[in-house]
Design brief:
Layout lengths: L9 H10 L16 H10 L13 E4 L5 E5 L5 H14 L8 H9 L2 H10 L3 H9 L4 H13 L3 H8 L8 H17 L3 H8 L9 H13 L4 H17 L4 H15 L34
Antiparallel strand pairs: 1-2
Helix pairs in contact: 1-3, 4-5, 5-6, 6-7, 7-8, 7-9, 8-9, 9-10, 9-11, 10-11, 11-12, 11-13, 12-13
Length: 292
């Protein structure tokens, strides 16, 4: 659940990569990702997790010395986890000090570099303000991206309106993807598919594009649209290396195929099986399925 949910969210990924050290492992010594030392540390912090049968464990933020700083439910939303991580940094400024490279970027980096740094450090408003002051097309596209992550669709539209004339191919590709997300959120399924539906596997951000195409196909609100969406997500999962969008597609596929509302659903077989073989996605519905 965590990999498809909060850990597939770009804001969470960027925050963790900037200030934390993620560690994934199985609590069971016989698990595929078993790590005896990590288990010892966690059981020392929370002895209840050392038993033969435990509830779904939470996400723990722990110091190298074994002090528990934060605990978040395995079923937490992206916003809940992000808030918990930022609260840890606010409470412990000694672990939020910028390094030499960050100090250089903050003073002499390009607007794009400085905006990305501000965003990573949680000052999203300052990042967006900085990008609004730039007249460059790539800054406008990044601004649209940040607005989209905040679900500010008017901001996305205004930023994309600044992308005019001939722009570098990479910038135009990224703009297409932001336009597709905007069209999907505004229930324009055909518009979303038209923007990115013909991207090839060699295209950067291909997995994200195919995920959005599946969402748009589903939004057609017909049995055919549902079947097309499932086929698109299944093909994505089968052809691409696992990344956040592949995990997200597996989550969407499993819930759409089973008709699940996200509560207590286990993918046990038949049409309810997770293409990645996950045992289930409990807790909540994939928020992208209802994005608006």
């Amino acid at each position: 659940m965590l990999r498809a949910g909060p850990f597939s969210d770009e804001r969470v990924i960027r925050t963790i990569n900037r200030r934390f050290v993620p560690l994934y492992f199985d609590l069971s010594p016989a698990g595929a990702a078993a790590d005896g030392l990590a288990r010892q540390l966690v059981v020392k912090v929370k002895p209840a997790l050392g038993g033969p049968a435990v509830e779904t464990p939470p996400l723990l933020v722990v110091t190298p010395g074994g002090a528990l700083l934060s605990e978040t439910s395995n079923y937490a939303s992206e916003d809940e986890l992000l808030s918990a991580l930022r609260a840890v940094l606010k409470s412990h400024p000694e672990w939020n000090e910028p390094g030499e490279e960050e100090r250089k970027l903050a003073t002499s980096g390009t607007p794009i570099e400085r905006a990305n740094l501000l965003f990573d450090l949680g000052d999203e408003a300052a990042a967006r303000t900085l990008l609004k002051e730039s007249s460059d097309a790539d800054a406008a596209v990044l601004l649209a991206h940040f607005c989209r992550l905040a679900r500010d669709w008017e901001g996305v539209e205004q930023a994309l309106a600044r992308v005019k004339g001939a722009v570098p191919a990479g910038v135009e590709r990224d703009a297409q993807l932001e336009r597709a997300w905007l069209a999907y959120a505004r229930r324009d399924a055909a518009g979303a598919i038209a923007e990115i539906g013909k991207w090839t596997k060699e295209s950067p951000r291909y997995s994200e594009a195919r995920y959005v195409v599946g969402l748009a196909q589903l939004r057609r609100d017909s049995r055919r649209g549902k079947l097309e969406a499932l086929a698109t997500w299944k093909a994505l999962i089968d052809c691409c290396s696992q990344d956040p969008w592949v995990y997200r597609a597996d989550w969407a596929y499993t819930q759409v195929a089973s008709g699940s509302d996200g509560h207590g659903d286990f993918s046990t077989g038949g049409e309810r099986i997770s293409p990645l073989g996950r045992i289930g996605y409990m807790g909540r519905r994939n928020p992208d399925l209802d994005l608006r």
